[in-house]
């Protein structure tokens, strides 16, 4: 346990130099909001592995999975805001994940990727996007969105 504590002191903590933002289309059902957020956050974590902290352990020594080390900001906005945020994020070269309305009706990962590939980027029916990058850049990308209630 001492080793784990010593390692933890080297972690970067608040204030975080980067931001993870998930932007949801404002007309989603609650279960859709949760599902889309989980998928999009997992994509950011997969693309930026240094965002993952160390595994957890309780007082009994039971180990638990590691999680993203910093907060995930969840925002909402109309379709136009999502489309604009997608374009801004790609222009700035930020790691970006997308979730389209078609993905609610597909049967799995292969079908999901095919559904996205079938549509030009500017024409995607976005219900959510996630981005990661420097705070000020992510703020500019998500401008026009508001905090999720």
TrEMBL record:
Pfam families: DUF2000. InterPro entries: DUF2000, Pep_tRNA_hydro_II_dom_sf. This is DUF2000 domain-containing protein. It comes from Geodermatophilus normandii. The lineage of its organism: Bacteria, Bacillati, Actinomycetota, Actinomycetes, Geodermatophilales.
